[in-house]
Amino acid sequence: MMNMTEKTVLVTGGLGYIGSHTVVELLVAGYQVIVVDNLSNSERFIFDRIIKIAQKEPVFYQDDVCDLAAMSNIFKKHQVDVVIHFAAFKSVGESVEKPLLYYQNNLISLLNILQLVQENSVEGLVFSSSATVYGEPDVLPATEETPFIKALSAYGSTKQMGEEIIEMVTSSGVFKAISLRYFNPVGAHETALIGELPKGIPNNLFPYVTQTAKGKLAMLTVFGDDYNTVDGTCVRDYIHVVDLAKAHLAACRRIINQECQSASEVYNIGTGNGTTVLEIIKQFEATTDKLLPYKIGARRPGDAEAVYADSSKAEKELLWKATLNLKDMIQSSWAWENTL
Ligand code: UFG
Questions:
Q1: Are strands 275-276 and 235-236 parallel, antiparallel or unpaired?
Q2: Contact (CB, 8 A) for 50 and 44
Q3: Which residues line ligand 1 (CB under 6 A)?
Q4: Which of 13, 71, 227, 331 can pair with 86 through a Cys bridge, CB separation 3.0 to 4.6 Å?
Q5: What value, to the nearest 5°, has the Cα angle with vertex 221 and ends 218 and 226?
Q6: Cis link prior to 198 (omega < 30° from 0)?
Q7: Residue owning the nearest CA to atom 14 of ligand 1
Q8: Catalytic member of 155, 208, 238, 267
């Protein structure tokens, strides 16, 4: 086992939702961490919160990963062992409105990172992929062998293309890459010092639920109850963001310990449990003792009926498994909401 304290991990988007939780776990595990974030969808105070939780300070650069010259300077100053690349635009709806912006931002940043990883003898890259690559899977749970279907949004397309570009670039063999396909990340750190900070009215279920319970929003709309599921509402695989952060550590470890079986690997990161929207509402009310006003509305265009993960490959090869349950996810999101 390598001494992790000698290893440096550069985290792009390290002040974002998943990035900040991952930076905390890396610092606590003893890695040196360099955070690069342009604050386009994150807040500077999260940096101070990370230090408060971890009692250690990462190096911080306020730069855009699309700025190759700025990024080159960072790689000149530091010997980086692994890069975790979170920085990207992530709103499905916005990507349908502004596809070119999503291709430019998400692909140019990835191409820059690949160039820098290659030029600077970095051992490997961990890439934020998404269950969105599966679209509406024909067979459930989705395994890593489940084929891609044509993406419905530019966001989904950049994740599919990102994985394909990584596979091609790593095939020439100088560095390793692990793409993690996240299912539905929710929850917040147990200290309630960091969590999700959605801009404007949230699109995602969890922040919509907590903001409604808090009285910031009038009512939750359940998008359709006529799906072919136990109660008619959509099924998703919700995963606690701290479990997800730990999956990134497992991927770093695999790269550093030279355990990768191929130049480019992919892993599903979910719990394997499918939960409906109505089950989330009931569980939220039971856990928090708050009444959640909701109504049944029309289906949301583009929503898949049911998506959940087979994460047994991650369990076997990354030695990672989700340990936090739905109650933990709800409790921590609610505690975080109450600090905002
Ligand atoms: N939902 C509601 N009401 C709301 C918000 C959501 O009923 O106000 C429902 C949705 O219909 C869906 C479920 O709650 O059934 C979860 O919706 P989210 O928007 O939270 O998450 P999605 O599964 O739609 O999206 C997630 C990620 C995306 C990713 C997508 C596909 O947030 O980044 O999975 O993998 F692209």
A1: antiparallel
A2: no
A3: 90, 92, 130-132, 156, 184, 203-205, 208, 220-223, 234, 236, 277, 300, 303
A4: 13
A5: 160
A6: no
A7: 205
A8: 155
- Cα torsion through 160, 239, 61, 52, rounded to 10: 180
Q: Rounded to two decimals, what is the model's pTM?
A: 0.97
Indicate the burial class of 198 (C-beta count within 10 angstroms; 0-12, 13-18, 19 or more).
middle
Residue 93 has a CB neighbour count (10 Å cut-off) of 13
Q: Is 155 tagged catalytic?
A: yes
Residue 209 CA, closest ligand 1 atom number: 8
7-188+239-272+309-324 fold: Rossmann fold (3.40.50)
For the CA of 91, the closest atom of ligand 1 is: 33
Q: In the structure encoding, which two tokens stand for residue 179, read together? A: 């793409």
What digits encode the pLDDT tens for the residues 242-295?
Answer: 999 999 999 999 999 999 999 999 999 999 999 999 999 999 999 999 999 999
Other Cβ atoms less than 10 A from the Cβ of 172: the count is 9
The rounded Å distance from CA 235 to ligand 1 centre is 10
Which atom of ligand 1 is closest in space to residue 130's alpha carbon? 35
